[in-house]
Amino acid sequence: MDIFCREVKPLAALTIQEIQFWLSIMKEHATLIYWGLPCDQTDLKQAAQQFENVFDDLGKRSCAVQGGEDFSSLVAMSTVAVKNIFAFKRQILQLMVECKICGCSLYPLFFDHVSREALYFLKLLLKIAECDTRYSVDAITNENIFWLRCVADHLNFVRDLLDPSARQLFEQLRSLSDKYDQMGLQARDLGSMLWHFRPTNDLIRFEREVTETTVRLAKYNAAVESWIKECGVVSLVSPMLACHVQRETKHFLSTLELIRETLMKCDETGLCCYDYDT
Ligand SMILES: [Fe+2]
Ligand SMILES: [Fe+2]
Predict the structure, then answer these.
(1) CA 278–ligand 2 middle distance (angstroms)
(2) Whole-angstrom distance between the N-terminal and C-terminal Cα of the chain?
(3) What's the CA-to-centroid distance between 248 and ligand 2, angstroms?
(4) 266 C-alpha vs ligand 1 centroid, how far in Å?
(5) Which whole-number Å values give the CA distances from 266 to 135, 217, 254, 262, in the listed order?
(6) 234-264: pLDDT as tens digits
């Protein structure tokens, strides 16, 4: 199920580290939006700048959180800010799909992508008032659906900002995004087949394949990031976008590790018998 479905919630626990990660991601989205909007969109650019300040401030506040009331108040303030930036991203998306903004250097799908990430963060923050999901298999498959689509989007965004002369890199990124599209479709199949059921050996094998592919992708991204920083490849990709994409890929890897631990726990209870590490 997609992140827009009401029942979909992140598998991760609401920790200060998770909040800090997503606050910094929201701040970077605001910066990227500010850079990407055309000069005549002064109101939207100003709003993007304000979001950058809001998330920067929340990030600083998060460093002083000691727990208890501090934590709850950070969650409450972050929830308001994330609801607002989600609405802002959807507002720009809706203007763009009706061609009411010209000269923007970001795709409409980029705004959809960053709004999905905001919604994921919002659902994580709302976990403060909710108990854990009853069916861990649903949370696992939903994490895969969310992240595999994000990664495929990243590969497409970076590929489509390359100079047309970077033909080999273009083809490599296309083949990688095809791979992630295929794994995303498989995650959807597994999500519906195992809905409200339990993990199976097929799911465990799939998670291992996703993890191995994403470990290789993180290495590849690191190389692309350094080429972009050192001007080893000509493109319209900013070093900040390359770094942002790599940070999210690494966060996906930490989610895959959490999935591995969750599946190993279910293995101990005898619900599945496949050795994850073999
Ligand atoms: Fe992002
Ligand atoms: Fe992303």
Answers:
(1) 31
(2) 29
(3) 6
(4) 31
(5) 11, 28, 19, 6
(6) 999 999 999 999 999 999 999 999 999 999 9
- Residue 209 CA, ligand 2 centroid: distance in Å: 21
Cα 46 to averaged position of ligand 1 atoms, centre (Å): 20
What are the tokens at 161? 């900002």
CA of 151, nearest ligand number = 2
Tell me the mean pLDDT per 10 residues along the chain, length 278.
88 95 98 97 98 98 91 97 98 97 96 98 91 81 97 98 97 98 98 95 97 98 96 96 98 98 77 49
Neighbouring-strand partners of residue 235: 162
- Rounded to the nearest angstrom, the distance between the alpha carbon of 275 and the centre of ligand 2 is 31
Task: Please name each of the domains of the chain with its CATH number.
Answer: 1-133 (1.20.1260.120), 135-278 (1.20.1260.120)
